[in-house]
Structure prediction request, 133 residues.
Amino acid sequence: MHDKRYNESESFFKETLKILKQAGQDKSMSYLFVLKRLAYVCFLDRRYSESEKYFKVSSDLTPLVTKNPANIFSSQKNLLLFYTYANIETAAQMGEKLISDIEDTLPVHTKELSFLMGVRFFHNNQSYRTSTS
Prediction:
């Protein structure tokens, strides 16, 4: 049987973040990883405002930690996926912003972003081709 102990997981992740911050590692990939996991735990526990907060912090902090476009896109994609589930209109706005900044995105991520935006239109019973024409 699968045991869902989200509150316990959340407290462990928060404690880990505190330890990393005390060690001066609050701008590291490890910190970003734990922050992302904390956001997922809050999402699974249906605490969407907290989850959004952690995904946003992760997305905003990633460019300060790394210049790797794959890592930056991944953090943006996590926030976009969250919005796809929690607030489709915000997902649409964020997706359009990411598409307008497409030159900062690797070609493989451009395809993924186009797919995600297509999913957004599918949820709204629209065709992506006809809406962009």
In short: The radius of gyration is 16 Å. The chain has a mean pLDDT of 82. Helices lie at 6-22, 29-44, 48-65, 69-86, 88-100, 107-123, 128-132.
